[in-house]
Write a structure and sequence with these properties.
662 residues, alpha/beta, globular
Length: 662
Amino acid sequence: AAERVEACLDGGLQRVRWRVPIGGPLPVGTVGARLRPGAQRSAGRASADDAAPGVALPALPALHAVPARPARGAPPARRAEGRLVARAPHCWLPPELRRAEGAWSLSVQLYGLHSARSWGIGDFDDLAALGALAGRIGAAGVLVSPVHAPSLGWPDRGSPYSPSSRLALNPMFVSVPRAAQGFATPLFDTWVARPETRAAIDALRAGLSVDWPAVNALKRQGLERLWVDFRATRDTALTREAAREFDAWLGEARTRLRAHMLFEALAEHHGAADRRAWPAGFEHPDTDAVRAFERAHPERVAFHAFVQWLAERQWRAAGEAAREAGATIGPIADLAVGADPAGADAWSRPGLVDEANEIGAPPDPLGPDGQAWGLPPWRPEALVEAGFEPFAQLLRATMAGAGGLRIDHVMALERLFWVPRGRRPADGAYVGYPLEAMLDVVATESMRHRAMVIGEDLGTVRPGLRERLARAGILSYKVAWFERDAQGRLVDPRMLPPLAAVCASTHDLPTIDGWACGREIDERESLGLLDADASARQRDERREDLERIEAGLAAAGIVGGDLVERLHRWLAASTARLAIVQLEDVAGLVRQPNLPGTPDVPPNWRQKLPVPLEGLAALPRWTALASIFAARSAAAHRSPTADPGARRVGDALPDPGGPPAP
């Protein structure tokens, strides 16, 4: 049975004829092809002996298959046709990370930005401005907290790590004023000029934290009016081009976003954003009742498409603004490890998620009771049966418009800790996933999108996984607090592996100022999570730990200046290819964005930066840290391309050259 295979060969696409055996197991390193009922599985290794007569068979890269189907007109038991896709051997590395260490990036919780233009929450227009600022001081990119979509019916949700859909973008990050500049908006203009509307906007801007329900209510009103304007003025000169763009976009995005758009319209219709509360007949997107609803309510479904179109336009524009200003990587997106069991993703693929369990972490020194995050895991056998397309689709959606991707809890590529729902984390167990096939998909999509990949590998990591991720070109994630020598001192920064992104802290850990004063210990005691004796012990341990941090800094020759400055000099001196500067540290925040083990309520996921976007560049720390990393970049440019000699994991950087995978 001769098959046509598209492969990435010699810098371009070529068609080759490939003879494959019928039946038998798939070769190692490929993804199982799923045939329609009655068909057999077919795949095989290519060799000169397999070539069709008269056709020279070039050397093919490693391949993985996608769902196949019986060939037209052929007996299903004898022939099958499918698609085999060239597998990239490793992830994309941008030029900034292929030379000696020197690249650095800002990181931001997007909701915490605020400006004279935004409506009480950071938005994609603010991100564009931050990206331009970053480029002007030499940063290569901006790591952004997840921008996945919650449901508009969950106005009180703040955590970006429990979205309704990871395939869609958060409507609250749409800059409504910026959107109104793209077409004729008479109704919106009248509404936004009203005194009560202006007062509501001013109140949200003045708030010290993000009021998610109030932001949701106000932005929803603005977006609804923009939608009415967009439909009413489609044939005017001001709107005609935007309407053509929307129609073209919808033609491409409809399949990917259909479930999210339908979910949002149904949540409005049923008055509940929890799909488990809907009546019988609405269990997934392809029931008769759901299709009937889709036919009866096209305008409401189209409204949610319109909101996603605005969001995607602004997300891409933010990346373009950063790159034009010199931040050549642009936004680095963050992929959450799961989605809410009540939301659109779980609703759209009921056979893929396991609702009887939730993702978590086993007990460890930082979490003696273990963790359960409420997010249902993907069933590995269902993922294989689907040809890994749900995972590839998720990566495509998250990488689109970004120059990099941080994979939260990257250990999920190999195994996940499943906790039976309603039980203690200690009752959980690890469930394995096909690591090699998952890495194939990550590398292929990384090359396709020219997007670097960072794997958040904090916590319990099986021996050997970090080495395997390094061979795949995935950057490890190093946090200063955890990088210690045998005496517990901060390690020499020149001993960090090159293939890594290094930072001082993360959203779930204390800021530098907060660590120094034990802010999270005080908060846990005030919430009753620690008694007085435990708090006293932890404060004593913190003082001793700070002495070990200071000793490590001194041993590395980093003296003078406050702890924030010295830790950033440590980051700048590291051999890690990418250093990350957290805006919370630049702005002097003491409270971390999220205190693990406490609910999604204020102040978690609601903290604004203490200065507006327009004032960031005037902060003394902004200037000082920019100087520190400018020196790092200058030193890297003076050095020849490094080949450290494979002394540590990740020293031998993969060659990321060549065209993207098809």
